[in-house]
Amino acid sequence: MGRPGLLGMAARTAVIAGTATAVSGHVARRQYERAEERDAEHQYEVQQEAAAMMASAPPPAQAAPTPPPVPAAPATDMVGELQRLADLKAQGILSDAEFEAAKAKLLA
Fold first, then answer.
1. Using CA of residue 53, residue 56, residue 59, residue 61, what is the dihedral sign?
2. Chain centroid to CA 6
3. Whether the Cβ atoms of residue 85 and residue 102 lie closer than 8 Å to each other
């Protein structure tokens, strides 16, 4: 048996191809695992940096308290003023024209 036959060569080629496939599969799987480990380490580092930044950041500024409302100027007691004008007219102190003019000014 000096030279292997066709069947022997095919078998040897199959063994070599199978071995190469197994080795390349193992290498690819190992590279994937290492990449996953690096990604996990990187993700952990990013989370640690973010946590450190949050811890060192100043607290959010609080909104200034709303100032109390400015008190309104005392409203003129219109009903009281009209009553006073009517009393002055009834007493004869104001004429009809004076009363009407004062009332128009008050209502304006």
1. negative
2. 73
3. yes
Nearest alpha-carbon partner for 89 in 102, 100, 97, 99? 99
Q: What are phi and psi of 61, to 5 degrees?
A: -65, 135
26's tokens: 């193992």
Contact 94, 88 (CB under 8 A): yes
- Sequential pLDDT tens for the chain (108 residues): 556 677 778 778 878 877 878 777 777 788 888 888 888 888 888 888 888 887 776 777 777 777 777 666 555 588 888 888 899 999 999 899 999 998 888 887
pTM of the model: 0.34
